[in-house]
Amino acid sequence: MLPEKYFYSENDVEKRELLPGVCARLIWGEKIMMGIIDINPDTEVPEHSHPHEQCGRVLEGAAWFYVGDSEQLLVAGDHYVIPGDVPHRVMATENGCVALDIWSPIREEYISGDVGFFRE
Questions:
Q1: 67 near 42, Cβ under 8 Å?
Q2: 11's torsion region: left (phi>0), alpha (psi -120 to 50) or beta?
């Protein structure tokens, strides 16, 4: 699914709820996807894994990242890389967290809205 246009303003990007307290603003091309992920204070993205490579940067706030057997408190300006198929979860601190996530290939389930795996 190719993008309909090349340039987007913040108002062009629909906010999608991935699970309660976690919203994403997504754009994508044929092989890569980017999302601004807003995680409410003290909200957890439960453990999950996917075949997609993921990397990102914390833009605001802070969160605990648990990737494989490692854990780290990341604050604004910190980066992360999560290889495909590695279990991971994120727990926002009391101030919440805004992160830029990048995936390859694109997350088809985010486009379709089929993100039930977070609730399993």
A1: no
A2: alpha
Chain mean position to CA 55:
9
pLDDT per residue rounded down to tens, the chain (120 residues): 566 788 989 888 989 898 999 999 999 988 999 999 999 999 999 999 999 999 999 999 999 999 999 999 999 999 999 999 999 999 999 999 999 999 999 988 887 867 654 444
R_g (Cα) of the chain, nearest Å: 14
DSSP the chain: ---S-S---GGGS-EEEEETTEEEEEEE-SS-EEEEEEE-TT-EEEEE--SSEEEEEEEEEEEEEEETTEEEEEETT-EEEE-TT--EEEEEEEEEEEEEEEEES--HHHHHT--GGGG-
Right CATH number for 27-112 from 1.10.540.10, 2.60.120.10, 3.40.50.920, 3.40.980.10?
A: 2.60.120.10
